[in-house]
TrEMBL record:
Keywords for the protein's UniProt record, in alphabetical order: DNA-binding, Phosphoprotein, Transcription, Transcription regulation
Protein name (record): DNA-binding response regulator
InterPro entries in the cross-refs: CheY-like_superfamily, NreC/VraR/RcsB-like_REC, Sig_transdc_resp-reg_C-effctor, Sig_transdc_resp-reg_receiver, Tscrpt_reg_LuxR_C, WalR-like
One Gene Ontology term from the biological process aspect of the record: phosphorelay signal transduction system
A Pfam cross-reference name: Response_reg
């Protein structure tokens, strides 16, 4: 953005009273200029390409094209524009997709006018702003422990074949004959798979295989 010019803002919301209210409060903020208002996602895309605003205040739930798809299409056309989501919704199925679509900041409509203005100024400086409840939800999501991969996920395809035959009660020689490999190679694979599964002997390995549906 050129120094000295006001931050141009486009409002995209299908509620006229919301747009009127936002235009009124932002009109009193120094260095911020509302250049247009759109009542739908489709109109938002048209006005965005016409005015090329620095910042778009984007509603999420609108008739026709929603804010997620509108954000995606606007940023495909105007990648330098910063989209600030301004919504009443805090549910995961809306929040995460619009952030993935490229939304720069996420605010709730309960935010004070000064907070919205500060978020616009921050966006113009390249700084994202997340409303506290949004930030908390995102942190909690990433703090959730990920399910650990089963021990047998570390086994190679050949080790898995050896484990299945071992679970059938076959000897090293039987396994070597069936897989057409040397008996030393079988012993090598058995030693490796026991270590990877964290078991002490062939019997425990066989039990592991059956418990985890790896053997018939």
């Amino acid at each position: 953005m050129e120094t000295g010019l006001p931050i141009s803002v486009l409002l995209v919301d299908d509620h006229e009273m919301v747009r009127i209210g936002l235009a009124a409060v932002l009109g009193t903020e120094e260095g911020i200029e509302v250049v247009g208002e759109a009542g739908s996602g489709e109109e938002g895309i048209r006005l965005a390409t016409e005015y090329k605003p620095n910042v778009i205040l984007m509603d999420l739930v609108m008739d026709g094209m929603d804010g997620i798809e509108t954000t995606r299409q606007v940023l495909r056309l105007l990648p330098e524009t910063k989209v600030i989501v301004l919504t009443s919704y805090l549910d995961d199925e809306k929040m995460y997709p619009v952030i993935e679509a490229g939304a720069f900041s996420y605010l709730l409509k309960t935010s004070r006018a000064s907070e919205i203005a500060d978020a616009i100024r921050a966006a113009a400086r390249g700084q994202s702003v997340l409303e506290s409840q949004v930030a908390s939800k995102m942190m909690n999501r990433f703090r959730q422990p990920q399910a650990e991969a089963p021990a047998h996920a570390e086994l190679t395809d050949r080790e898995m074949e050896v484990l299945r035959l071992l679970a059938q009660g076959k000897s090293n020689q039987d396994i070597a004959d069936e897989l057409i490999i040397g008996i030393k190679t079988v012993k090598f694979h058995v030693t490796n798979l026991l270590a990877k599964l964290g078991v002490e002997d062939r019997t425990q390995a066989a039990i592991y295989a059956y418990k985890n549906g790896l053997a018939e």
